[in-house]
């Protein structure tokens, strides 16, 4: 009878060991799956962050292009204004030189005093 009890205890221990081993195996699987899921999640978050970063970069590039275009247009307008101003100044100077020469040639007498660039000394 004692042998039967010992045999039952050993059987129960083996069963308990199996249950514990199965539980440990399942726990290891759960932990491994959790690590894999966490790794996948981290990768997905990284990919999303990269995509979002790329979108931000694209948005910033677009804004930079627009700003550069605006600067170029403004520079071209200023260049045109300077060119026009220079042409006006050159025109005024040419007319002044012409008037001085005309003044000298006609002994200080201009025929048209209505001239925009009438010169008197």
Question: What this model shows, in words?
Answer:
By secondary structure, the protein is mostly helical. The protein has one domain (1-87). 86% of the residues lie in helices and 0% in strands. It contains 1 helix and no strands. It has one helix at residues 2-105. The radius of gyration is 48 Å and the shape is rod-shaped.
Summarize the structure.
It contains one helix and no strands. By secondary structure, it is mainly α. The longest helix is centred in the middle third of the chain and has 104 residues, at 2-105.
Could you outline the blueprint of secondary structure elements for this entry?
Elements lengths: L1 H104 L16
Organism: marine sediment metagenome
InterPro entries: ATP_synth_B-like_membr_sf (IPR028987), ATPase_A1A0-cplx_hsu (IPR014275)
Protein name: V-type ATP synthase subunit H
């Amino acid at each position: 009878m004692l042998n039967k009890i010992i045999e039952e205890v050993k059987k129960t221990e083996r069963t308990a060991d199996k249950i514990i081993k199965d539980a440990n195996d399942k726990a290891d699987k759960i932990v491994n799956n959790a690590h894999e899921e966490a790794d996948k999640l981290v990768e997905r978050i990284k990919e999303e962050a990269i995509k979002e970063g790329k979108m931000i970069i694209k948005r910033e590039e677009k804004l930079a292009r627009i700003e550069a275009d605006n600067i170029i247009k403004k520079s071209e307008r200023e260049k045109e204004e300077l060119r026009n101003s220079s042409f006006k100044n050159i025109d005024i100077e040419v007319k002044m030189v012409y008037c001085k020469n005309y003044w000298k040639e006609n002994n200080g007498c201009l025929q048209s005093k209505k001239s925009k660039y009438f010169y008197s000394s």
